[in-house]
Structure formats: structure tokens, C-alpha cells
Amino acid sequence: MADRFGSRLRVEAERWVRDGLLTSAQAERIVARHPASPAWFTRPIAIFSILGGALIAAAIALFVAHNWHEIPRGAKLGGVIVLLLAAHLSGLALRARGYPKAGEGVLVVGGSLLMVGIALIGQIYNLSGRESDALLLWWALLLPAAYALPSVALVVLAWAGVAAWYWELAFDRTTWLGAELHSASGFTAVAIATGGLLAWALGVLHGDGGYRRARQFLEQLGLLALAGALVALGFLGRDTWWPVAGGAPGRPAALLALLLLAAVAVAVAAFRLPADGATARTGLPAALFLLVLYLLAVVGALAARAPQTTLRALAYADWALLFAVSLALILYGARWDRTSWINWGVVFVGVNAVARYVDLFGTMLQTSALFFVTGVFVLALGWALEKLRRRMTAQAATVRGSA
Amino acid sequence: MRRRLFVALVVVHALVLAGWAASLELTLTRAQTVRLAIVQRDPRDLLRGDYVWLNYRISEVPLAAFSGRRPEYGDRVWVALAPKDGVWQVAGASLAPLEPAIDQRLITGRMRGFVYRPRAQPDHVRVAYGIERYYVPEGKGTAPRGTLEAEVALADDGRPFLTRIFVDGRPYP
């Protein structure tokens, strides 16, 4: 990012000199404050450090998984605990000596070794309990330590643990959430979408300061979960995709509580969105609230065993919502300089189109008509945005001229 | 300050692992062991390695053994075990804590569905006790043919711990 800013600054500085806003000397001094070449290495160092840490952690995990019966269990567990402490202390020492990124990589080894230790106890005592319980213990211990330091790599690792735990919880019917979701086909997709909204809101809460990378991770994770679930819900009411579960579905109290939590999280996150006009700032949260209402409607319809026509109507609403959310991501991503939102928005439009092609909303002709209407809409939107951009540029030029 | 807090929390990580292992050791030393007959076995866990998948004879509990209402998926089940022919078998079951007879032992598990047989109503329920995986060194996941038995330590509250498995009376692996 720093490198991109440096490169852009060079281009802009040349223009400012041409426009007479700056002298060449001033431009040179400004550009010199942001040297581009050292920043080029920033990203690879961070990526290599974290990747290296993750590979070492995986190597230790496999070493433990080999299961050394010859080594006494106390020695095995003691070894992992010593390694865990050594990794964290080495990470701290590297950070203190001016190698923060390498330090983050070693801290990732320490955080992963906690999971290895939990797995080792499971192996030693032949505990075949739920995976979700082990993941819960892991992230519940790791998350406070990650924020206490703080270490962004550990924060990301711990939130990845939360995501894995939530996934296990949703798909394992022996858990409190899984048992409830199992009672009706479609509840699981709603739970994943709700988890996506929560992750996105948590990401936004991390802001653009020191936790920027954590924000990016959580936002993207959330968007991915949200879009995946919405694509699945687009098939609602299709017998082949949504086999009807036996028995009447129970009242999904936990799912409703999660939806309420997601609505609160989106409302709180709205205050942490980039500074902008009131209308622009409320637009995205409003779209997400609409999504929460839609998910509530899906839960209600599934719990009440609504007829297939109702479910198909909800599926059509899902198509429109996924499309609207994708467009909102592209527009707001461009407005607030969040490239990943734009990328995901484009991907989701493509995935939605492919899903609708597979779904074949009627005959091929009807699908063709749907694509044509959507295409005309997107073209018109692009044309309107271009017009708006030109008008704003002209206004800015007029203001500059009068000044 | 933050650095000290982080180090303290990392020490908590180490203490949780050590404390958990110590509590399991303590439970194991106080537990009574029983032998259970195994009827089938079998792969690999990403973090814990290879294991033998165990299905016990007591994993199928007759519906008739239950007093009270019919069990449902996920219900906690208390099963009384009594010795017969060198291994411990189901003597009774309940959806509430049981008081076992003097020669019986208590084991707890979770109902995991009904056992369906062709052209018949289910008359047994499947119970998982949390001792269905026995972790073994890499490459030892398939036990040799023979009579399989498991040595299980039972805590006072019925919580089971799988300690060893035997093939034809000899410990495996």
C-alpha cells in the first residue's frame, strides 16, 4: 500500500508542478518523504514470514500426529509447551530488535502450537469429542493474548479459529447450533450468511489503523460467507437442491438470536465506516439491514413449512439482493478506496450469473431475457456513473478556475 | 505493560494445557477399568494422526433397556454395565442418572440415532461414548484380525477414558 501511495504521489507531484501548484523543489521534497523502493519489500516480507510460520507450525503438527508411542506422554506434552513458550518469547525478542514482521511469523508458530497442544492431549487420552470444542478452547485462549500484545497476525489467526469453530458448530448436528439448523434445510445457509454479516461488521470495527490487516481479513471472510450463502439460498424451493427434512422444524431460537446480534453488529459498524456524507454512510448499512430482514423472512418461511411457491419467491428476492449487494460493494469500494470490496463485488456478479444459468429460471429464453434486462441495467448504471463523474469533474474545474 | 500481559496470557496457555492433562491423569488414576468387546474397527485425523475407529458391542443399546420415554437424537444416556463372559455388557439404560447395582458400572454417552434393520422397526439405539477413536502410531491404523477388546477407565460420574486395546488378549499396537 505504501508503495502504491509513493508511486501515485510521484505522478500527482508532476501534475501539480505542471499546474503551478508546487515548485519542482517542493515536489522533490514531498516525493523524497515517501521513498518507493524499500516499501516494495514490505508485503513479501510479511507474506513470507507468516507463510513460513504457518509451514513450521504444520510441520510440528504432523510430527506430533505421527504419534510417538516410545516417548512418555508427559515428555510429549512438556515438549510442546516448551516449544510454545519459546516461539512466543522468540517472536517478542524479534519484534523488540526491530524485526516486527519476522516476529509476527514466529508468533504464528506459537499460536498454532496451542492448537497442537490441545490436539496432543486429545491424542494421548484418546478423546474423540467434538472438533468445535477444541477450536473453542483454542480461540478463547488465543484471542485475548493476540489483542493484549497486540499482534495482528495472531489476531487474524484467532479470528480464523473463530470462523472454523462457527463452521463446525453449524455443520455438526450434535452441537447446540447444529441440532437446531438440522431441523430444516436452509437454516444452515442462513446461519452462514449471518456469520458473514457478523465477520464483516467485526472487520469494519477494526478500522484503518494498526488493525487494518485484521479488518481486511474479516471483511473479506464475511463477504465470502455472505455471498456463498446467498448463492445457495438462490436455489430455495428447488426440490433437487433442498430436500425436505423429516418432521416439523423446531423454533430456531439460537438462529434468531444470531440474526439479532448481526443486526446490532451492523448498526455499530456503521459508526466506523469511512467519513462520508450522511446518505452515503447509511446506504450500505441499510442494504445490510434489508439482508437481515430477508434472512428473517427465510427463517420464518422455513420454520412455518411455507409452500414451495413462497420459497421460490424468496429465491427470486435472493437473486435481486445478491445483485444489489454486489453493486453496492463495487460502488462503495470505489468510493472508499477498498479494492477488495470491488473485486469481490465483481466476482459475486459473475457467480450470481453462473448460478442463475445453472438454475435455469425457466426456459433458456427466459434466462436469456433475465440476463439481457440485468445487462441493460448494469450498462445504464455505468453510463449514469460516468455522467456523474464528468459533472463532478466539471464542477471542480469551475471552482479551481474561479479561485 | 502490554508485553507483560501477553507473556502472562501465554503462560495461561501453557497452564491450561498442563492443568487439563493433569486433571485427566488424576481422573484416570481414580477410575475403575472395564473390558469392552469391539465389533468393528477402521483412518487419519489432521492434527492427531492415525486412529482405529472403534464400534463397541455396547454402542447398540436395546430400546427395551430404557426406562421412561423413548430417547431422541443428542440425548445424554446413562448405561449400566455388568460383567459377562470376561467383558462388560449392557445391563440397563436411562435418560437420567442411574444408580448401578454393586456389581455394575456406569458409563455415559449420547444417543446418535436408531439402528435400522431390513423390514423391521428399530429396536436398538446407537450410543456414542466419546471413546470411538484410539490414536496409534502412523501406519498402525488397521489392527490385525482377531478378537478386539478395549480397556476403558470409568470415572465415578460415568465418563469413560479409552486406555488400551487388545487383539486376542495382547495389547495393540
How would you describe this structure to a colleague?
Chain A is mainly α. Chain A has helices spanning 2-18, 24-32, 37-40, 42-65, 73-96, 100-124, 131-148, 152-171, 176-181, 187-205, 212-233, 253-270, 278-303, 308-335, 339-359, 364-402. The longest helix of chain A is centred in the C-terminal third of the chain and has 39 residues, at 364-402. With 173 residues, chain B is an alpha+beta fold. Chain B has a six-stranded mixed β-sheet with strand order 5-10-9-7-8-6, with no helix packed on it. In chain B, strands 4-1-12-13-14 form a five-stranded antiparallel β-sheet, with helices on one face. In chain B, strand 9 (105-115) and strand 10 (124-128) form a beta hairpin. The longest helix of chain B has 29 residues, at 2-30. Chains A and B meet through helix 4, helix 5, helix 6 and helix 7 of A and helix 1, strand 11 and strand 13 of B.
